From TrEMBL:
Residues 100-235 form the Anti-sigma K factor RskA C-terminal domain. GO terms for molecular function: sigma factor antagonist activity. Residues 4-36 form the Putative zinc-finger domain. Pfam families: RskA_C, zf-HC2. GO terms for cellular component: plasma membrane. It comes from the Bacteria. One of its GO terms (biological process) is regulation of translation. Gene3D superfamilies: Anti-sigma factor, zinc-finger domain. This is Regulator of SigK. The keyword Membrane applies. Keywords: Cell membrane, Membrane, Transmembrane, Transmembrane helix. It is a single-pass membrane protein. InterPro entries: Anti-sigma-K/W_factor (IPR051474), Anti_sigma_zinc_sf (IPR041916), RskA_C (IPR018764), Znf_put (IPR027383).
Length: 244
């Protein structure tokens, strides 16, 4: 049982509590107006976002995005000595910002689907349950995802107004020996390092991120030497474009 019962509002709203904790928390809701109000607001937000996400995209848009993803899929990342950037031309994070850049992310318009998917991930985010709930309820929160080779999936929920984001990774191969994945925030000024991560034995990672996401046009993932790099040393493994 979580020591502070007030921290269970997000998990309850996501229907992610075990039966015994759910019953105990429902008793608490009967005597705690603050928690009851927060749960009501979170459930209303999830319902609103879920309704938005349920509306299918126009067929032409869906076909265009899928075609562009097929054209830009990459093979599994090679070791660093074979992971060199292009010999000439603008860096990939600059090319991404021009109007002709290919779209390599599927941008979701709501977070309702993500509420259900957080079940089973709350253990990794146990200390951040309140932050997760508040992040998803932020008025400017948006969810972007990118599917890669072998079923790899990277999803990021970003709320610039809170200076926070949540990273969820599934089915990602581990970084090569003595290397790590690095996350980049990309804007008109270039690429700024945001976080280093690697995956567990199941190819997963779940973590909260802090940073200045205002003006961020995209989020990139590269493979870098242990300890990270001040600038990307090669082409990205994945790029997720934000709706700016």
């Amino acid at each position: 049982m979580t020591a502070d019962i007030h921290l269970l509002t997000g998990a309850y709203a996501a229907d992610a509590l075990p039966d015994d904790e759910r019953r105990f928390f429902e008793q608490h809701l009967g005597v705690c107006a603050a928690c009851a109000q927060e749960v009501t607001e979170l459930q209303a937000t999830a319902a609103r976002l879920g309704a938005a996400a349920a509306e299918p995209p126009p067929p032409a848009l869906r076909a265009r995005v899928l075609a562009q993803i097929d054209q830009t899929r990459q093979e599994a990342p090679p070791p660093r000595e074979e992971h060199a950037g292009p010999a000439g031309g603008a860096p990939w994070w600059q090319r991404l910002l021009v109007p002709a850049a290919a779209i390599v992310a599927v941008v979701a318009v709501g977070l309702g689907v993500l509420v259900g998917d957080l079940r089973g991930r709350l253990d990794a985010l146990e200390q951040d349950q309140t932050r997760v709930a508040e992040l998803m309820a932020a008025p400017d929160a948006q969810w972007v995802e990118h599917a890669g080779e072998g079923g790899a999936l990277v999803r990021v929920v970003v709320a610039p107004s809170r200076g926070e984001a949540m990273l969820l990774v599934d089915n990602m191969p581990p970084a090569p020996h003595e290397h790590v994945y690095e996350l980049w925030l990309i804007d008109d000024a270039g690429a700024t390092p945001a976080a280093l991560f690697d995956v567990d034995d199941d190819g997963r990672v779940s973590r909260m991120l802090d940073g200045d996401f205002a003006g961020t046009a995209a989020i990139g993932v590269t493979i870098e030497p242990d300890g990270g790099s001040p600038q990307p040393s090669g082409d990205p493994v994945m790029v997720l474009e934000l709706d700016t």
